[in-house]
Amino acid sequence: MEKKQGAEISFYAAECMEFAGHGELYENLSLTEAVDAYKKICKRSLNCGPGIGFILKDPETPAYSDIRWPLYQWGQIALDEIQLIPAYREHPLVKEAVREIGLHLPKIMRNGKKNRGMER
Fold first, then answer.
1. Is 66 exposed, middle or buried (0-12, 13-18, 19+ CB in 10 A)?
2. Which of 3, 13, 53, 55 would be a feasible disulfide site paired with 38, CB 3.0-4.6 Å?
3. How many of the other CB atoms lie within 10 Å of CB of 86?
């Protein structure tokens, strides 16, 4: 994976992706840790639209650094949201995160079905 100088990415799992600070929130995680935290959240509550997101820290894109942004929500990879921001769409760490979350989808699935968040 190509890595930009000084850039890093971390992940979070939130009970509510729209208001991440409302409900359970696990931050500063690896992607594997975020997937595990997401699964724990989903076992307890699906009422608020849980998901997994990323925080990119890149001195070359200060306007988009240190912002929570969705990676997986509503039962799918959040490609539409990532595509909205060229800095995310083109960043090698975000591209790698999208590829890696795809590898985690079998673990995220529940009973062979997508876990979209707002259903039991």
1. exposed
2. 13
3. 10
Q: pTM for the full model? A: 0.86
Q: Sign of the CA dihedral 48, 67, 98, 39?
A: negative
Phi first, then psi: give them for residue 115, nearest 5 degrees: -100, 100
The closest of 86, 87, 56, 50 to 69, measured between CA atoms, is 56
- Spatial separation of the C-alpha atoms in residues 26 and 94, rounded to whole Å: 19
Q: Is 57 exposed, middle or buried (0-12, 13-18, 19+ CB in 10 A)?
A: middle
**Which residue is it, tokens 């990879």?**
77
Report percent pLDDT > 90 for the chain.
68
